[in-house]
Amino acid sequence: MTDQPRLKHVQCVDTPSPTRMALHRMAYWEWGDPANPRVLVCAHGLARQGRDFDTLARALSGAYRVVCPDVVGRGRSDWLRNPIGYQVPQYIADMVTLLARLDAGSVDWVGTSMGALIGLGVAALAGSPLRRLVLNDIGPTIEAASLVRIGTYLGTPAHWRTLDEAAAAIWAISSSFGPHTREQWLALTEPQLVPDEQAGQAGFKPHYDPGIAVPFHAVTPEIAKAGEALLWQAYDSLSLPTLLLRGADSDLLSHATAQAMTERGPRARLVEFAGVGHAPTLVQPDQVQVVREFLLS
Length: 297
Description:
Number of helices: 10
Shape: globular
């Protein structure tokens, strides 16, 4: 088990216009023995980055080579030239490139929110190498009220003078993650920041491309309905062991949707965490233990 990850990059293809292709670098954080054939990929949420999984990675790096990508536009990864490309099909293509780089015969996947949708897409590919799948607080049906809430802050310019000021501001929009100690929250906050100087004053800003909000805000009810149908189709095609995590107070994944996911497709095993909304951070010991037991069983 290692205490700190190795930062690596992989080149991926994007299409900034219908007539032109380009490359972007996707960063990923690797924990554990780089020769371990047992690989776990941990994919983060919409405006987060791969260091969100430090606690889980430390807990599992003795059994796995744990790989935590910064999805393009976030963290140490490049930004896309055309922000309309910040959508799940691009992310799935990037992850297929990453899996080829990892050269693993089989892969387990933990995905939080957007990262779970990416994992769902990879798992649904014919010939997918995924062996076990953890979906953290998202399903094919996404509650509209949660999208409105996320839309109030996603991509909004921000500047914070200190780490503490940033931590307080990010907590104000993230308190649904559930109780965290000050140490836990600062550890989750620091990788979310990048230095930013305004009017001669040093400080911090969010560590993601504000352009990720462009396709998010372009979603219409009609697009959302079509997307939901495709996600259910993908979910129903799965047969691999699947664990579904839900914050009991989640405004994004309803209990009804979660229950339906236990009754169709891979018939996911559902675990709910009291006092948590969207989404469990997989930092608390009980959350880590549930994931660990499922993956290693």
